[in-house]
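Q: Sequence in, structure out?
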Amino acid sequence: MGTRRYVSRVFCQQASVLKIVSRNITAAANPQTNLDFLEGQPHKRHPGISHLKTLRLPEEMQTAARSIIDRAQVTQLPDRTLKLTNFLWSRKRAVEDFTLRQKALSLEKKLWKKAVEKGDNMDNHVVLEGVQREVFSELRRTIYHWTPLKYNEELGVVYMASRMAGGYAAVRRALNEIKKRDPTFAPHSLLDFGSGLGTVAWASHFYWADTLKEIVCVDSSGPMNILAERLLKGDEEHAPSHIKHVYFRQFLPVSPKVQFDLVTSAFTLSEISSIKEREEAVFTLWRKTSSYLLLVENGTKEGHQILMEARDTLLQKKEERVYDSRPASVFAPCSHEKTCPKLALMPALPCNFRQKYMPLNGHNSQIEKFSYLILTRAPPPEAKSNMSVEWSRLIASPQPRTRHVHCRLCCPDGQLKHVVVTPRKHGRDLYRCARSSEWGDQLPLIPDEEDNDMIQPDVEDNDMIQNDSE
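A: Exactly. Output:
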């Protein structure tokens, strides 16, 4: 009996040694298992995590907003909030004049050809007038009619009831990316272009209340500026502002040499009618930026493409006069500076993210879908300088299965990949991090040749991404 116990103990010890050796061999073969990437953090809070739990508006902001809405007594408020939400979500860019002329000429040629083929013995002038009427009718029917939104006090209150909580959640989530990845960043000044109800001021105050000494909110709508100030004062005219050093303007500061540590613009570029005007606005905001520029739009195809226009403008085009020679580089969400691979999908899909939040009425959490872009003048933060691998971004919800996790990633090489993460192939630490991550987080993962390329995804992948993105 003693001999049997001894032999059994020896076999167990040998098995344990083999497991340790096997694990070490796997780690040596896969640099992704480098334990340094955890930086001493548990798997559930690894450095790549940037998602947030369900967000709520600050208590002071909620109280003031409810007071303003009650006093306004807007008729049919629930119906109007739903109508405004749907309008803003379905909003598209205005059709450029060049595109409109090209389409008109193409239609005119097509209709003229049909008229000639009919062989009607009619005066050419009469035929031309008929063709032009048909062209105008077809353009009115098929072209998106973009109209500017002009906010008066009543429409501002409707916007407050419908979009303030979701907008705050999107901005908080985007700012958290900077706070998490660059903890040394301590802005003293902030410029918010298209500030609306001041949600950026509240969200930035949450992260940098101790250092922010100047917040300049710029919005062309006087009534919106008044509502934003009422929110800061708790809807009491003579009360002190909850956030100090907030200044409201209707125009951007004139001097191009005046810069701010952090410049933001949320859901504003989509309110600019032409690509040329948006380009000028982006250049102006970049001139005002000394460290970070944050742009946020709806998580639709239009919102994403507006951000990609801005990205291309700052990365590929040059200003006539440069006041700050430090170049722009992408900080988030992209893990590269190549053309967005989602635009190459058929059909093209938006790169968007989700943030759960509680609406102003406090009933049932909702999800805000948004797209964002952060550019920086500063060199990449040193938080990841000790990493031996690069980080990829999860562009869809991970799908945990038994002993493996399906991850859809945007990788540093500019490719979309479907990676099946397993403890055997990628190491126990990366596997557990993948199971703890959510859509929008990062993973220290370099896919190999065996991983599926998603540039032309299969039907299952495409359906999954489509459902997640829309």
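The first helix runs from residue 2 to 29.
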